[in-house]
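User: Show me an example of a complex going from sequences to structure tokens.

Assistant: Sure. Here are the input components:
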Amino acid sequence: MRQIINFILRYKNFLLYLFLLIISLALTVQSHSYHRSKYFNSSNWLTGNIYETTSNITTYFGLGEENKKLVEENKRLRNLLFNQKKEDSMQLDTTNITYRVLASQVIKNSYSLPRNYITIKKGSADGIKPDMGVITANGILGIVENTSKNFATVQSILNTKSRINAKIKNTNHYGSLVWDTKDYNTVQLADVERLVPIKIGDTIVTGASSSIFPENIPIGIIKNFDLNNSQSSYSIDIKLFNNMAAVRSIYIIENVQREEIIELEAKTNNDSQ
Amino acid sequence: MIRNSYFINIIRFVLLILVQVLVFNKLNFFGYINPMVYILFLYWYPIKEKRQLFLLLSFLLGFLIDLFSDTVAIHAAATVTIAYLRPTIMRFCFGVNYEFQNFKLTNTTRAQQITFLTLLIIIHHLVFFTLEIFSFENTLLILQKVLTISIATLILCLLLSSLFSVKKE
């Protein structure tokens, strides 16, 4: 007994070090699996407020640029609206809406790590929930991962954990969007079969089999492509429409029917087992 | 005198975190170089203080940086490692001198100080990027990142430390 106490006393520094190291390693390894970093992220009160304060100050320097972008987007949307050839009895009944859109701002952006997260200014108090889609005027940005009362963290598409269903525009050839961590303006489309006809410059948009994003949200264009090692599918480099280093205004998309879809899928899975 | 040193360390702790997360984490030089200047806290921390407290403080420092940059606990692991190894590194750099009662960092030569800082930075970055990238397939990428970012961190740390150095009396 005495020897044990002596041992502990002699190696107390080493044991403390080991203890702290194991805590941090455990947290890190745990976070590599999906949705575990629930408490230790920048959506908490302290970090959220500090980021919000600094972003409130720095935003003033980019207001002109930001205004131009928004006017540009308004112009595009108005063009679409005026040239719509449908009957003019637009449905405004909220019960028929599938997607609800919320607007927010980025208060912290990162794009140089292998697993990047973006912190945004709205949280559970504004109706943000995990697994909502986040886009900008130009294209897709990521998926909400954690929320606190006033802030939320978004898993960027520049994250090795991110896998988003995407397709080649105007076709039904799907793949999943991944990132190889090399360049923050280029992502990869994996699992596209080699029989699919593709060429450089083709547009990539979100696919229909995701319950998070609506179909046909722009992602980017094909920069170059190659057959992968097994020669069975392509590995495609996609140049993003978004400038990931300068995102500011964002839209959060809520799929109102998502819960229904998930419930149904869970039920089907249970029944088939 | 003792109270004064506590005060300075607390100020340093807070300021280094803020400078790190609000300035240097957003630098993205060449797209990926973000120097980690908060290592200076471990470089400046008094030598004669209790080691347990030092380990705990380093863990806290790393963990707070992690919270801000959404990296869970990678900074914490790397920082705690160099905090534990610091006495060994100091013995390597300064020889037996450093165990004397009146040893001060300012009394050592410039070359010794730079070696000390460089070793702290390299070990920290090695642990950090190994954990961050987390696969042995990318050993080359890890080494490349350690090398480039260590150089950036070293330059900025030297600049900052000469800017805020205690004047010799």
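The lines above are the inputs; the final block is the predicted structure for all two components together. Chain B touches chain A through 35 residues (CB under 8 Å).
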